[in-house]
Amino acid sequence: MLTRRSFLASAGALAGSAALAAGPPAPALLRATGAPHPAAGAGVKAVRLVAAERPTALPCFGGRTLPLWTFSDAGFPPVVRLKHGERLEVRVENALARRNEHISVHWHGIRLPNDQDGVPYVTQEPVRPGESFDYAFVPPDTGTFFFHTHCNTAEQLGRGLAGVLIVEGDETEAYDAERLLVVRDWAIQADGTLGPFFTQEGAARRGTFGNVRSVNGEAQPTLPVPAGADVRLRVLNVDAARMVQFGIEGADWAIVAIDGIAVPPFSTKAWWASPATRLDIVMRSPGPGGTAVLYDYYAPDPVPLATFLSEGPAMRGGPFDPAPLRAAGIPEPNLGRAERLRFDFSNAVGVPSAVPAEAPDAGQFIGDICLTPQTFWAINKQAWPGQDHSAVPPPLATLDRGRSYVFTLVNTTPHIHPIHIHGHTFKVLGSNKRDLPVHHADTVLLLPKERVEVAFVADNPGDWMFHCHIIEHQETGMMGILRVA
Ligand SMILES: [Cu+2]
To answer: Residue 18's CB: how many other CB atoms inside 10 A?
Structure first.
């Protein structure tokens, strides 16, 4: 059966968060990904995004209309699709009514020129209410990506300022169908207002979860799929805080890409997906009338997120043997000549903070944006923003352009930290706690006390953000800059 796949994790019972921490060694991957992308084509995809408050009644809101902040009248989430080789041209307009609520758009996972990266004060000036900014770049990689703002992100993302970016052209054989699953919480108070997006308790621990879980704005939706088909599922965790452990019951399935980048198809019982992680999955849907369920296993009892309902006659027979995606053109690090650097992700004890502990708004996001009331976290004993994003710190490291690096990412805390690098994509080499297939990722999960080795070629010049993607951790110190020069 497993002609193309390897089977990664133990087939034993899966019980909560520790289930994947141990398991048999991963066998060698049986089949490589397809040939690299053909030469880029031409063409322009023009998009207009208008950040504004839009009263929105998502199905998961239970009949309530809430004041979301979104990028499009199309609701949440907007989906931008383009073909590999096309140039994306985006005009972003800030129509938010709140004074000083500035924005920028970060194209998460895209290896783009530094001045298009969308980080206020670092790569561009903030886009203030009434202003606009034009982004233009050719995404070098195919895959499933997303975009979001990069300041006051806990609130802006919490209110809905995010979208999906899909770069097509990676399929070596067309799958039979495709479904998009955008997973996130919404925080809704009893009086129908949104929030809280930031709490002192959440920021200092595992983040503030919402109280309404959703897939594509619905609570436990049923998605029709063709029966007996190889269905591509683009699954995105766009939550600001919640860790999810995705798995499917009732169907064979394999992961074919992580963070948009192809991986030889492999099966597993479940996969950790931190905030910002994207998984491309191929699922052989059940026979006519059958169902399969996408679960989150990272809970005392598995949480069903969505149900797939097979419709029509079965499209395929024979064993499940998903076609691989095309390999990405990410430069291969030279491990033998790489410089090795260590980064400790820690709490901020002993790290000076300029913020008075008795700040009157401590525990809530304070009035002006890009300000943080507390510092809880640090990278190599350096905390940023440490009150103010606009005071840009010196880089954590300056990397030689074109040189290969191996980073050892060390989590010294008892909490989970998904570590994201801008402008580059890591090759994940291994962990001291888990058997991971070698794969690429722009957001690398660190379990408590875990140590993960990653490698990459520092080939993209500029100052790049390097931070935890639990947004409250990012906003309370676990953020820094890597300079490639
Ligand atoms: Cu973190």
So the answer is: 9
Residue 204 tokens read as 């200092």
pLDDT tens digits for range 336-354: 999 999 999 999 887 764 4
Q: How far is CA 181 from the centre of its chain?
A: 13
Task: Report whether pLDDT(174) > 80.
Answer: yes
Q: Are residue 74 and residue 190 in the same domain, yes or no?
A: no
pLDDT per residue over 388-439, tens digit each? Answer: 556 788 899 999 999 999 999 999 999 999 999 999 999 999 999 999 999 9
DSSP conformation letters of 231-251: EEEEEEE--SS--EEEEEESS
**Number of CB atoms found within 10 A of residue 57's CB:** 14
For the chain, what percent of residues have pLDDT higher than 70?
86
458 and 402 in one domain?
yes
Q: How far is the CA of 475 from the centre of ligand 1 (A)?
A: 10
CA of 101 to the centre of ligand 1 (A): 24
Q: Which residues sit with Cβ closer than 5 angstroms to ligand 1, an ion?
A: 417, 468, 470, 473
Give CA–CA dist 157/110, Å, rounded: 19
Last residue of a domain, one of 168, 188, 203: 168
Q: How many domains does the chain have?
A: 3
DSSP string covering 104-155, please?
--EEET----GGGS--BTTTB--B-TT-EEEEEE--SS-EEEEEE--SSHHH
At 8 the pLDDT is 40
User: Backbone phi, then psi, for 144, in 5-degree steps?
Assistant: -105, 115
Task: Tell if the pTM clears 0.70, that is, is over it.
Answer: yes
CA of 417 to the centre of ligand 1 (A): 4
Residue 162 sits in the same domain as residue 178: no
- 75 pLDDT band, cuts 50/70/90, is confident
* Amino acid present at 466: F
Of 148, 168, 188, which marks where a domain is finished? 168
Higher pLDDT, 369 or 240: 240
- Are 196 and 282 contained in the same domain? yes
